[in-house]
Structure formats: structure tokens, C-alpha cells
Amino acid sequence: MHLLVLGGTSFVGRAIVEEALRRGAEVTLFGRGRTGAHHFPDVPRLIGDRDTGDYGALCDGRWDAVVDVSGYVPRHVGQAMEAIGDRCGRYLFISSHAVYQRSGVGPGSDEDTPRRPPVRTVDSVELLDEETYGPAKVACEDDVLARYGTRATIVRPGKVAGPHDPSDTFTYWVRRAARGGRIALPADPAQPVQVIDSRDLAVLVVRLVMEGTPGVFHAVGPAEPTTIGSLIETCARAAGTEVEIVPVPAEPETRMFPLVRANWPTQQRSSARARAAGLPATPLEATAADVLAWDRARGEPPVRRGYTVEEEAALLARTDDGTTRGPSGTAQSGPGR
Fold it and tell me: How confident is the model at residue 323 (pLDDT cuts 50, 70, 90)?
């Protein structure tokens, strides 16, 4: 199989390329040649730029399948499809759970859950935010399905975790659990949480294109339902430490805290269709151990999300006193008071 990957040298794309090569596929990469330029030195590269619309390198060649990892706005995807035309057997688009409506979602929701209205007026990646990211992905999905029909496949990952993750989301909890001790959690420990190992996602993607499978698939994990409290404890087991989870009030600045979600059903989506199509299930503890080893090997650079050591220590001290301080500085009752 000859596979073209749009993107493919960062996190998810890197895992997909590694899996495709492992399965014996001939892989060609398309991108700017800047991110991860030293990865996959023996893999052919086509140089172009999605932001500027430079797709000239795609005007020749033929591929059994295209995996679009880096399409975020309709302009990106439309120009790529125009350049490739019918010179591919299948077009697999990596989408997101952000496509779904945020209300009226129950536990176990599947791929037929109503989506948000599409947005086609996003002119550049700089304009993507929480309000436009999902709707732009909806428009991208629609365009891929309209162009390729039964030759189109859509994969909607949940939160992806694994080595080389640039988001710090799962890494924060792995690193924090490895320090052990009392851990401040601005959420209910019983909150459901779903994370998918990047390598499991890669196995699903490569299997779908190699088997020519159409349709839409959730890529969520782990296989067994878990909570954010259990996830932290699992990370601690992987590190050989002991932790005590201390729920603390969620303040406005913790709205985007790693893996904390207010809408619990969105963390309880069904993976049945993807499992039936071959999505594997790496144990969460194995993912945590691999992320911990990778993080330590890279020297544990500062993470951009979560509490600093000093912030957490101060918050735990205030919690022990029975009060926390909100943004205005006024005292607020601590948990259970």
C-alpha cells in the first residue's frame, strides 16, 4: 500500500506513520518540512504549506490512501482534495469530538450524535478557538464525504495520550502522580474521563485504510470506563508512588484544567464501532509508564497547564484551613464546609 500522510511528523501523525511503516506500507509525507524534520529520514517528503495554499507538490503521484492529520479548516481540506483529485483510493480525515453538540448528550453516545452547525468562514488557523474549532471540523467532514463518498473515512479521536504529546494534558497528571503525596484536584474524582493511546489510534487508522473501511469512528479509550481519580491513581502505580487526592474548588482559571470537564456525558462516548473495526486497548497504566519514561528522557521541561508546585502547595494549605481565595480575594468555604 502507498500511503500519503498530510502532516505526520508531530504527535498523532508520527504514531500513524510509525504504524504504517511497521505494517509494510510505502509512506510519503506532505508538509512544510519544519516540524520533526529529522524523523523518518528514509521516507519521501513532499514540501508544501497548507496555510499559504501551496499544494503544488501534490499535483503528481497516485496513492492507495490519504490520511489527513493536519486539516483544520475547510480551506485546508478543500485545496488538498482539489490537488489530489481522484488519484487516491481512500481519504481518511482525522476529526474531533468537538464536532458534537454540547447539550442533550447521554452516556454511551455514538457516532450518530447530532453535530454542531458547520462553519466555513474561518480564514486561517489563527482564528480557531473553542467556538470555531469544532464547527470548522464539521465543515471539513462534510466536504470529505461529499467529495469521496464511500471512499471517505472519518475518525474522531477523544483526548489522545502518549509519548511525544505536545499538549501537556495527560503528561501533567503522569508527572504530578510521579511526585506522589497529596494532589489537588479541582474536580469531582468521580468525573468520567476518556483518553486514547496515540498508538492505538494509529493502529485503527492504518487498519481502516488498509482494509478500505468507510464510515465514521470514535477513537476513545481506555477499554474499561475510568474516572479522573482512578486515572491519577493509575499514573501513581505506573510511577511506583502513593497519592492522596484532595478535591479543591474549581475556580474560573481552572476551567481548562487538564482533563477536567463539566459535561460528564461527553467523556462517556461509545467506542463499540471502532472496537469492532480493530481499535486495540493499551492498558492505561502502560500508557502512563511510557509517557513517564519519555518525559524523563526529554528532561521534564516545564508544562504549560495545571498547577505549579508553588500554586498547588498554597492551594492545599488554604484547603486545610477550610478556606480558599477566589480571584477577588474573598474567602470562600472549603470542600464540605
Answer: low
